[in-house]
């Protein structure tokens, strides 16, 4: 059977845009959560169910749906799950009650699988020497989606109301759903007749057989936990009575993440040259330096910019190089190996979100900074172990 045709550069860039659109959906709620709560007349505790259940449903969807990518074509599954996202987002857009809005958001999380199928699809349609570059391009698309969602949703809701945010989001999703069948070429062989639960259950033996994937997932779990913990604690610190900044200041600082949109593809190309594990070790070392600078430079906003730039430059690169360690393995395993990696990542994010506020409440900003330095040192040590083990 002939190999699938390689993607053109235009297709690669359009897939990155699609990755941005399908990823952004989970992040629109973050800056407008208070306005949505006021509209539906619910408490802050109840409105918190929206992002919480969305993330839990996302983790469940990854575990139950993503392994299907090793049986059915990534193209077919991506299109199907994108339709599910579009319908779910439409429910949120027209919801008349909080229950309907919550149900739509939860379903949206469950179907948000496309960002994790797209790298596996692309890995089968690029030359091996360009795997890192294309993986980084898709990662940059995800970063762009998160950035635009956070900045754009707050501005639109402030001037035109939160409903327009979701009308625009639904329109973007309809456009992506229509475009994907043309962007993603067919020709994949659908593999095997394995029963569904056998396919899902096969993830666990694969984790035992591919320990390096578990190690990469653990490294990314720490990386993602640090990202969540840093921004939660930084928001609490900057808006505290002692410091006195507003939430808009936190949003302006979050825009620094735009630097990674430009740096990540270049770092991916460099990783193609020097090797994924060596590049990851370098990125981890730079990130450790950046995190160590947060506490001594946190006395001013200008000082905070320095570690924020460093962390945002290399943080996504750790994720890209982590994926590179297994996306070059057998094509019939890649999606299930991605499942292991992503589930571990979200477990790390959950731990980071829980521990950050607890540490801040007890030990303050200094305690969080110390915890982040320890976590980053462990991440760097694991990256060094992986590099030495695979030399």
Largest sheet: none
Q: Can you tell me the CATH topology of the largest domain?
A: Growth Hormone, Chain: A
The low-confidence parts are none
Count of structural domains? 2
Q: Which overall shape is indicated by the principal axes computed on the Cα atoms?
A: globular
**Number of distinct beta strands:** 0
Oligomer: single chain
Helix proportion range = over 70%
End-to-end CA span: 34 Å
The CATH class assignment of the largest domain is Mainly Alpha
**How would you name the CATH homologous superfamily of the largest domain?**
MFS general substrate transporter like domains
Q: Give, in order, the helices and strands.
A: HHHHHHHHHHHHHHHHHH
* CATH architecture heading of the largest domain: Up-down Bundle
Radius of gyration: 20 Å
Number of helices: 18
Summarize model confidence as the mean pLDDT.
83
Q: Approximately what portion of the residues adopt beta-strand conformation? A: under 5%
Q: Which class do the helix and strand fractions yield?
A: mainly alpha
How would you summarize the topology of this molecule?
Blueprint: H1 9-24, H2 29-40, H3 44-47, H4 49-65, H5 74-94, H6 98-111, H7 114-123, H8 131-160, H9 162-183, H10 196-201, H11 203-209, H12 211-238, H13 247-254, H14 258-274, H15 276-292, H16 294-297, H17 301-327, H18 334-389
Descriptive key words:
single chain, 391 residues, mainly alpha, Growth Hormone, Chain: A, 0% strand, globular
Q: How would you summarize what this structure contains?
A:
InterPro entries: MFS, MFS_dom, MFS_trans_sf. The chain has 18 helices and no strands.
């Amino acid at each position: 059977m002939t190999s699938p045709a390689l993607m053109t550069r235009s297709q690669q860039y359009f897939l990155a845009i699609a990755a941005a659109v399908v990823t952004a959906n989970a992040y629109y709620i973050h800056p407008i959560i208070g306005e949505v709560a006021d509209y539906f007349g619910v408490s802050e505790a109840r409105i918190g169910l929206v992002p919480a259940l969305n993330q839990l449903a996302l983790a469940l969807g990854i575990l139950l749906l993503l392994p299907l990518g090793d049986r059915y074509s990534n193209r077919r599954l991506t299109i199907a799950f994108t339709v599910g996202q579009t319908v779910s987002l439409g429910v949120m857009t027209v919801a008349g009650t909080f229950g309907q809005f919550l149900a739509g958001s939860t379903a949206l999380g469950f179907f948000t699988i496309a960002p994790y199928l797209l790298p596996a699809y692309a890995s089968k349609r690029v030359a091996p020497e360009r795997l890192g570059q294309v993986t980084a391009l898709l990662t940059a698309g995800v970063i762009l989606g998160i950035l635009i969602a956070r900045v754009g949703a707050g501005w639109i809701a402030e001037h035109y109301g939160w409903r327009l945010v979701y009308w625009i989001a639904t329109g973007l999703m309809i456009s992506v759903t229509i475009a994907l069948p043309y962007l993603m070429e067919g020709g994949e062989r659908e593999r095997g007749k394995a029963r569904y639960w056998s396919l899902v259950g096969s993830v666990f033996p694969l984790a035992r057989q591919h320990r390096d994937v578990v190690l990469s997932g653990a490294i990314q779990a720490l990386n993602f936990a640090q990202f969540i913990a840093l921004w939660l604690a930084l928001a609490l610190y900057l808006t505290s009575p002692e410091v006195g900044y507003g939430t808009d200041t936190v949003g302006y600082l979050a825009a620094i993440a735009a630097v990674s949109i430009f740096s990540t593809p270049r770092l991916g190309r460099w990783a193609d040259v020097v090797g994924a594990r060596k590049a990851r070790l370098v990125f981890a070392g730079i990130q450790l330096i950046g995190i160590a600078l947060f506490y001594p430079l946190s006395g001013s906003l200008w000082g905070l910019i320095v570690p924020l730039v460093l962390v945002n430059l290399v943080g996504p690169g750790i994720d890209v190089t982590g994926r590179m360690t297994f996306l070059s393995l057998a094509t019939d395993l890649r999606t299930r190996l991605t499942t292991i990696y992503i589930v571990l990542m979200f477990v790390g994010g959950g731990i980071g979100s829980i521990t950050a506020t607890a540490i801040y409440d007890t030990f303050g900003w200094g305690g969080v900074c110390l915890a982040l330095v320890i976590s980053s040192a462990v991440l760097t040590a694991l990256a060094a172990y992986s590099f030495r083990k695979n030399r």
